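Quick one:
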Amino acid sequence: MFTTKKRNPMQFLYKLTAMILIMLLLVSCGGNATSGGDKPDNERKPEVTAQHDVQQDKDPEQQQSEVSKESDSPFYVNISFGAYMDAKSKLISTLSDALATNPGTEFNSMSLLGVVMVDIALAPVSCFGLGQNAAVATLGILGAEDVEYSESGNQYSIKYRNKDGKKCELQGEYNKAADALKCIVKIDGKESLISEYRKTSFGYVSQIYAVNEDGSTYVYQLAVSDKNGAVGISKVSAVPPSLTGNEKIDFPKQCQEWYAIEGDEVTGVTSDGKKISFVYTPSEV
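Output:
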């Protein structure tokens, strides 16, 4: 007799989202690798050398301020964002599975849906530092048109028109010394998302301010330390202060609703103010 395993739809959704982001990352890297067209290496080298000579003739300040659509920037922004997303995905997936498989908290896992969906809006971050061609290839998968990529120093911008015809822009500023990235998403000129993360001594802290279509605004706060961490959710009326990097691993617990895991112990406060506490037993995959 065959039996069907009980599946967690939230965990499946997060894995699907992660797969989409990984695919976009691979496409962006591939787009950057082919930015020189189909020319063989021996035909591309003179062009690269000529560009290098032109750059050498420019003043340092001019090089710093120039916005290039074919960027030769290193991949450190890309790598940093990928490391943060990996840590975040593991925490959300674990908490989602814990809540969905524990009797009495199954529907509380849906509270994490908002944290998952913002990842799609941040997908263009995978193109930071990779140039115009990578941005066009990556966003093309999402049906975007009129893609314009630019960067200057540690600041990045990707403008495009989404499949619904709305003008979108993703702005990002990366602090390499702090390993911190702050992004702002605009739709038709209005801010719809402000997301930031910072590396800490224990792992990562992050904060996401999201504006829904109905005008309601929420803040999601996360702290991750390997397999442990916390996620907080609050309905707010204004943009919260930026992260400082001095936050503790339990700082999301200041939110109206929060869930945390330490080892196999899950604690939290649900959206209706109910305190929860239980031991998590991982479900079968």
